[in-house]
């Protein structure tokens, strides 16, 4: 492994006269990835941050920051040797490279999308409840940070500001944090139900709220860049996108998973509302609704772990046993685990295509829903057909209630 490199806080990293602590306010676990990205990519951070992040405010005595490629330490070291690399160049204010902020990136679709985006040369800030769970993504070039999507507004606003500071912007937000609570409605405690809704639904609300100001800035920058470069052949800045994760469960209420389905219905409704609210601001919003994909999502976990498939702590086997609808779904989930038909790598590829208007989505607008998997496609179509038939059967009754 290469040794530590001392980066001066004034030049060449930054040209600000009173010094720069850009990154010093970031959590320790993402500093290394952040400075490694600046150093290897040849960026000058002077155009990326306001005076509030300068050394005179945060670290008045700082002269140097020690970059350790192992991501284990950054510290002041005035006696360290100066780097020999030539002065860095400023990041372009009209960058066409997408910058992602992803929650739930330690596994499943969150991790897969992060890997796909990185493979395309995009910039990624990956988050999870534990930054240690993101070591693999950090090793492949992502900045990583610990984020609890259920944290208070002020804390999440600060987290998103830190994330935006890493690359100077956020253009794509993907809310992938969530888990499934398995059990009949009668079996689940109020605390178990509330905890899942807090993560799956309120977590998406919280991150969306904290991210929208950054997406608005990205939209304004994209509009200004488009107006300035209307006669240029250079790539345009990406349209900012906010994407939440729904599910095939957004369309069906399933025995043993009613809580989860309700949470995903809520997320899909939230996303439709966001799409209408943000369209006039130059921001696209959508919901990803996958069927069953071969991730670790159905792996069982202890109650309260807030990830994967969590079983209720108070099952009623005499009431909801193998011969019941709840028992049948429990058995099906056991058999389906690690045998799902969907390929998460292919799914992640489509998600990145659609959210960036490339590949299979070239020339298309971001749709209000992104349905993934044959099972989801066929299941949702059947649900729509059944709903139309229901409306036809009961149309006279529905109309009879008008004035």
From TrEMBL:
Pfam families: adh_short. GO terms for molecular function: oxidoreductase activity. It comes from the Eukaryota. Gene3D superfamilies: NAD(P)-binding Rossmann-like Domain. Residues 98-296 form the Ketoreductase domain. Keywords: NADP, Oxidoreductase. SMART domains: PKS_KR. Belongs to the short-chain dehydrogenases/reductases (SDR) family. This is 3-oxoacyl-[acyl-carrier-protein] reductase.
